[in-house]
Design a protein that fits this description.
The structure is a homotetramer.
Chain A (H helix, E strand, L loop, with lengths): L2 H18 L14 H7 L1 H26 L6 H15 L1 H11 L6 H28 L6 H6 L2 H10 L1 H9 L5 H16 L10
Helix pairs in contact in A: 1-3, 1-4, 3-5, 3-10, 4-6, 5-6, 6-8, 6-9, 6-10, 9-10
């Protein structure tokens, strides 16, 4: 497996998953309440759409940064990457569940836990994959192997798991807190950091 | 982030969004009115499909022309491009809302405003992105930096916002005027211009 | 516009349209007739799926063969190619209409005419696009310009329009004849020809 | 047809099919049983999703390994590859049928047979395609032609058909045994083998 084709395939799956999110935006059935009212009531869909879109976008950028460090790939990377794609591919569904249940009296907390939990699972798989690439120095590019502070990258990646663990754990308390954390996290990651250029 | 992968990912999202438009074309339920009658009544769907398809197509061409000027990309381009893709990704939904409500007695104007408004938002983000690329001369290719009249390109891009602002503003007056403007604009852009080759 | 990016974008749209065809295959609702009976009654869906899939596949091969002759692209190619992609993008819908109405007592003929007619429109656009590329000798690759019998290619492309025109015209007579012609045509094109290698 | 474009198109179709699987995960309708209960009852959907996702992933890896051996492609490869893509493109549907009927009292066995049978058909086409590439030595890369034990590769590919034939045949006995075999097979293929590196 060449690294190039693995990247191209991953790009394809991520691009499709991010675009399929739009299928969760519903067209209100004519004849009921006014269109304006019906659209306004759908605000959880818009919030969930934007948060999921940007989260997948950030994962795509991070995925690219991680792959750029590699000179070649092994079977573990192939397998972990497939699991990562599966966890990304499932996000249009968890986003749809959240959009449907966020304003519901029952199921609200579980939907939020499922939403943040799917981000957590994705982040954990990403962390394991990244950890493997950083520890398998024979897979890294010559310049990366010497230059970068690989331990610092790994520590930072692990820290990134905390907000999603927190968001998932707080879902029984308040679904709104859960989604607020997810939204804040992605805005934080999307904005340029003074410490590092996420665009790598 | 290499420019090449940013372009490939953008191409992917745009290609998927443009192809997902077809999901808005409905199959009439058998048993009601005749198929011919049912298909004819769906004409707003066909108009919305064609207009949205060509609009996304024109954006794709313009996106390519813009990216070709660049030698490299920075974090702002990455972020603005992600917002642009999000605004494109949402078009199958605004197209579906328009198709559903254009012949409806109520909601017609709001659906048209949402439709033209989504094109306006997309155009504004595109303008901001293009403006950033033209002003960040260190990102431009050597030959572009010297040769082209960058101010003229920027002025022309800004002018392109006017029709969509007008179309959105006129929606309360007549939804048909709004969609007519959107259709005329894209036909105008799609046809070869005597002044410039849009194919870049 | 570089030829490479035009091809990549076209490949993307064609790959998505061909894969979206699967959404027309329905899952029978449990509880009614037996699953076996329900699946068997859906045979028009399977036939329409296979015919449309192979037809889009053949168009993709022909598209590639056509693009390979080109050294560069102009604005007309860009525009005609966008129209071609639009006519391909619409096929999952015409396929769905045929699958829904082929066994229906009314609408059967119109659905078949729409199905074959969409292939006809696609073929006409393809013919116009190919004609433009063959007549615009300054766009052709040096070796193609000298070597190939361009007139023969054009005549053969024009001949390819006849079966779809016939299939569309015969729809009022029998929807089954129409779809049979479409199926025979694509099997004929898919099988290797003793005269030419469609794989180019 | 260049090998590169055939691979890119195949990657596209496979990436789309694998991502469309998510559309089979349903959002429970609010108001009935609790969300937790409704989600738990959908477990066949999750199992079918994961098994199909990984199976398509393994096919993608094997497809890449097969294509890497080739120096060029002929018309038979083009045609067989199109049939392979068609058999992959149909998997979101057979997965959906299984997910819908696995817990149903009737249709369970047929749905399982359809599911395993679609894997069997895909595997048979893959085997025929691979057999053709291995026997057409003029299509192989120079180093592959000399180095590899092509007979061993072919025998191993043929052996891979057995589990799916068995899984399909056992469906009338127990749908659960059928899906268990499919799941075990893909886990077996996904895990690294001590004998060969599937990442090739």
């Amino acid at each position: 497996m060449t690294k190039g084709r693995l990247e191209a395939f991953s790009d394809g799956v991520i691009a499709i998953a991010i675009t399929l999110l739009v299928l969760n935006l519903k067209v209100p059935v004519p004849g009921g309440t006014s269109l304006g009212h019906a659209l306004a009531r759908q605000w959880p869909s818009y919030l969930a759409y934007a948060t999921s879109f940007l989260t997948i976008g950030v994962v795509w950028v991070n995925h690219h940064t991680m792959m750029r460090r590699l000179a070649t790939v092994d079977h573990s990377i192939l397998l972990l990457n497939m699991l990562l794609l599966m966890s990304i591919g499932v996000l249009p569904w968890t986003t749809a569940v959240l959009a449907e249940y966020l304003r519901n009296t029952s199921g609200q907390d579980l939907a939020a836990a499922l939403y943040a939990g799917s981000f957590l699972v994705m982040s954990v798989i990403f962390y394991v994959l990244q950890r493997h690439t950083l520890l398998s120095t024979h897979l890294l590019r010559e310049d990366v192997r010497r230059g970068a502070d690989l331990d610092a990258i790994r520590r930072r990646a692990r820290t990134g798991l905390l907000p999603y663990a927190l968001a998932t754990a707080l879902a029984p308390l308040s679904a709104y807190v859960t989604i607020a954390i997810c939204t804040v996290v992605v805005v934080f990651y999307a904005l340029p950091s003074p410490l590092e250029a996420p665009a790598g």
